[in-house]
Design goal:
Layout (H helix, E strand, L loop, with lengths): L5 H11 L11 H7 L10 H9 L5 H38 L12
Amino acid sequence: MERICLDKINHFVLSKQHLAATTKSDDVVQIVRDVAGLHATISTTPYLSLHARSPCFERTDLDKPLVKLFFLEKIGQDALDEVYASAQRLGKFIADQSPDQRVTRWFP
């Protein structure tokens, strides 16, 4: 049975986290995918984490994907708000109709 030395284990763990010198990358998005996201208790933590994992990391390397994600989230939230508002308007319209005006069947 082969013995695994502590140095190999440490290198394996550091490599999976892009912290070994041989596994550092310039692709910030791929780093985030590989380490399963970034944790932040304060706003500087993701920047420091990526700085340790990427030799050429610049602040804008993280800012650009975050801005894109924010706008996609905002568009999605605006669409959900519109659907909710439409449902409320439809519910109010139906509630305002007298019982004999309400549609009881959709098909003849």
